[in-house]
Design goal:
This protein has helices spanning 2-25, 43-58, 66-79, 93-101, 112-120, 142-183, 235-243, 271-280, 282-287, 311-317, 320-328, 378-382, 385-400, 405-450, 455-487; strands at 186-187, 203-206, 209-215, 220-228, 249-256, 265-270, 293-294, 304-308, 333-342, 361-369. By secondary structure, the chain is an alpha+beta fold. Helix 3 (66-79) packs antiparallel against helix 4 (93-101) and helix 6 (142-183) packs across helix 13.
Length: 488
């Protein structure tokens, strides 16, 4: 009976053990609620968390800095969350993570506290004074100020100089217009239209040069007048004239017909200008080889000198009226040049000798200096009117001037001599050019023979070339024999 009482509890224990194991392994049914489970079922998990927290609190942190501890406390405070519905017993997961991080070795994060202290300290602000050359003052822009001032000065000078030249040119034209229109049918043709049209105004070439073309007069093809003013619109030129003063000029070029001027060359002007023209001008250097002569014989000022091909020409040109014009306006006259062989300046050696004589025209050239030496006024331009009367008189005077028989023969001999000298100077050049042409011809013929592919035809061409060369040699020998017979 006693054994029966012991057997019953043992059977109850065996039946209870598998039931408890299945209870934890099976899934929850849909109708089951978490409140049905006893709180003791989670007791072992709570015990495990309590043990871990206790170990974290008891574990020493030898290298933890006060600042890191303070941060941990703040993090713990921030991580504390009040749970509702009776869940106060659960600890926040962030606090658990913090506890887990505290287990790591603090030596891996050395210097963090010191860096935080350094950032926490505020450096005092140091205010430096800005250097004077970096300050926004007018002294910092003196180069820009100078450049702008120079540019404004240049623009102002350009406008003032251009307007002054225009006013001077207009003053000259207004004072000479009546005289020009009374002697020429066409005044002021600009050359833009096919038919000659009188514009009655000056043609502006640029800011300091004005042109006027006149034509339609007996014995005269045309007359070109150039008003060459100073470059008053150029500030640099204005500054240069302060060191070396110069004046304005009026240049007149009259082209005559072939039959309206005899064969002679004549020039008169200042001594310095005459010496310069004799060296530079082709006709004066060839036909007026003597030194410039004084004009005291005709009552001219000592500042003027004369270049003439022959004395007869000087006597014919310098009549009383011409002397009167020159004497009364001697300070305004730079040069007067009459020539039937005018071709311009001499051809320089570096440019090469031409094979033909330069073309010549019967030309009268006048160069007048405007009074004022740069400080020209409209009245100074009007004072040039007597010189224009002299130009008109010179045209008529040259047309009437005719050389006698001896003077004509002398002029013809001079022109033949000049042509012969020119041919002698260019003879060597012509020979060299002819030799070059012959060599090029021979070279072309040899190339033609060598390019022939047929050997037989190439041989025949070479023989023909040799026969031609032999004939040329024989002709030259025959000419030499004929010359010797004539000499005997």
């Amino acid at each position: 009976m006693r054994s029966a009482h012991l057997l019953v509890p043992a059977l109850l224990l065996l039946l209870a053990f598998p039931v408890s194991r299945g209870r934890y392994n099976d899934d929850f049914d849909d109708g089951e609620d978490i409140a049905d489970f006893d709180d003791n079922d989670f007791a072992e998990f709570e015990d495990t968390n309590d043990d871990q927290a206790a170990e974290a609190e008891t574990a020493p942190s030898p290298r933890a800095s006060p600042s890191s501890q303070a941060e941990e406390e703040e993090d713990e405070d921030e991580a504390t969350v009040e749970l509702e519905d009776g869940l106060d017993g659960f600890e926040d997961s962030e606090a658990q993570d913090q506890d887990m991080y505290s287990k790591y070795d603090q030596e891996e994060f050395e210097g963090i506290g010191d860096m935080e202290k350094g950032h926490s300290m505020k450096d005092p602000l140091i205010i430096h004074t800005v250097p004077a050359h970096l300050q926004n003052s007018w002294e910092s822009y003196y180069m820009e100020i100078l450049m702008v001032t120079g540019l404004l000065a240049y623009i102002m000078n350009y406008l003032i100089g251009k307007n002054k030249n225009s006013r001077l040119a207009q003053a000259w034209f207004n004072s000479h217009k009546e005289l020009l229109e009374s002697n020429f049918a066409l005044v002021g043709d600009d050359g833009t239209s096919k038919e000659a049209v009188s514009t009655g105004k000056l043609n502006q070439e640029n800011e300091h040069i004005y042109n006027l073309w006149c034509s339609g007069r007996v014995c005269c093809e045309g007359m070109l007048i150039q008003l060459k003013f100073l470059k008053r619109q150029d500030l640099l030129n204005v500054l240069a004239r302060m060191m070396r003063p110069v004046g304005d000029q009026v240049q007149i070029k009259v082209t005559l017909n072939e039959d309206d001027m005899d064969t002679f060359v004549f020039a008169i002007g200042t001594k310095k200008v005459m010496a310069k023209l004799q060296k530079e001008m082709q006709d004066l250097s060839e036909f007026c080889g003597d030194k410039p002569k004084s004009g005291a014989k005709f009552g001219l000022p000592d500042s003027l000198s004369i270049l003439s091909e022959m004395g007869e020409v000087t006597d014919g040109v310098m009549d009383n009226k011409m002397v009167h014009y020159i004497t009364n306006n001697a300070e305004k006259i730079e040069s007067i040049h009459f020539s039937d062989q005018f071709s311009g300046p001499k051809v320089m050696q570096e440019e090469g000798q031409p094979l033909k004589l330069p073309e010549t025209k019967r030309t009268l050239l006048f160069t007048f200096n405007v009074p004022g030496m740069g400080n020209t006024s409209p009245k100074d331009m009007e004072s040039l009117l007597p010189l224009m009367n002299m130009v008109i008189y010179s045209i008529d005077k040259v047309k009437k001037l005719r050389l006698n028989r001896e003077g004509k023969m002398k002029a013809d001999r001079n022109r033949a001599r000049v042509e012969e000298n020119f041919l002698k100077q260019t003879h060597a050049q012509r020979q060299e050019a002819a030799q070059t042409r012959r060599e090029e011809k021979k070279r072309a013929e040899k190339e033609r023979i060598m390019s022939e592919e047929d050997p037989e035809r190439q041989r025949r061409l070479e023989e023909a070339s040799q026969r031609r060369e032999q004939k040329k040699i024989e002709k030259k020998q025959m000419k030499m024999k004929q010359i010797k017979v004539k000499a005997m």
